[in-house]
Amino acid sequence: MRRLTLREYDYLTVDTFNKKVLRGKRLAVCIPQSVFDYLERLLEKEECRSDADDYTFFLSREGQSLFQVQSYVGVLQTPCGTQIEILPKISDVTEHGDEQSRIILLQMLRYLKKAKFKLGGDASLRKAPMHLLELFIAYFLQEVNQLVKRGIRSDYVTREENQAFLKGKLLVNQQIRVNSVQQQRFYVAHDEYVPNRAENRLLHTALVKVSKISQSPNNQRLSRELMLVFSDVPVSNNIRQDFAKCKDNRAMCHYQHALEWCHLILQEESTVPSAGVIKTISILFPMEKIFEDYVAAMLRKLLLPKGYQVTTQATGKYLCVHAEATKKIFALRPDILITHKEKGCWVADTKWKLIHNEHRNYGISQSDMYQLYAYGKKYENCQGLFLIYPKTSKFDKDKTFSFDENLGLICTPFDCLGNSHEDQFEHAISLS
Hints:
Blueprint: E1 3-7, E2 11-14, E3 20-23, E4 26-31, H1 33-47, E5 59-63, E6 66-69, E7 72-77, E8 83-87, H2 90-93, H3 98-109, H4 132-150, E9 155-163, E10 169-170, H5 172-178, E11 186-194, H6 198-213, H7 217-229, H8 239-245, H9 256-265, E12 281-286, H10 287-303, E13 309-312, E14 317-322, E15 327-332, E16 336-340, E17 344-350, H11 366-378, E18 382-390, E19 399-404, E20 407-414, H12 422-431
Helix pairs in contact: 4-7, 4-9, 6-7, 6-8, 6-9
């Protein structure tokens, strides 16, 4: 099985496998023709979609034999067995290695709001370097192992059998048709309490899949052990239908995290179409959303005890009023709204973009400045505005701007390594 690692906005091209060449300021990583053809089919399928999505696809075409990875991170496996790992681009600038980049990514993923899966502790990360796919598989197996320790659930299943004794309910029509000669037998229907239920079929199917994909000896060993527990349970013949049959009640609450990993592994929640190919797997996440949720979670942790409220994707404000229809239009939805009963409010937008001290205007987008200016004018008692970017060695100090004497903006670096932001944001709020 072949593996390659690249960063957001790196390129993929056809050449000797895993050969890396510079293309401008980004790397071009080489893949075999079979992998390129598969990615091309995925992109063509996405381009033919009739429904509009609020996100971009993880690939864009840049030439006849060239793709560029967009702002997605995670892992993709192709039918030929090639595993493509995409890591955050911040690691290039801050000179972190692949392992450090994975740790940063996993730390941030814990706060992704729409992700219901659970990531375990960091102890296993420090034992040995692991590919991102192996880490995801390890977290899934960890959840299934905890589930098994608590006990897998069984359910009543109705069986129809022709038996030598009466058990359950006699099915008269089948009895007459089948046992007209052998009248000593009984065609009956009865209930059996067996583990063959939708949740267990899905778990067994996911275990079979990861056992074929994983190259880690520990993951392979644990997956085989867990498959033995589900040996009396068949694999799922209809994954979508079995997910619809899953029950969400108190007796099944300990299945929740394991089933969320099943959604990812069996591609029911994948961002990449696969046409049901069992040999592929894709676990990809938009990096902008990861950064936004991570920053919001850290701000809540720091500011809630001090009497501030932190709201994400706040609604209720509009850019203007349509004069003819007399209705508000162009809704404003800032990433983060910080409010205090006595001090007023602050508006912040997160931008997953690398800022450089030596670039013109530090690389800050003019449209972003216009957007924050509109927020500042529409939110009453706004004390200040923030543009929050990831902290790098080229951008590690606040940049302060003033729109007028009453409204200012601070471009502030946010440390994705998880170091304390308390002094930084208290200082920034006081400055604004």
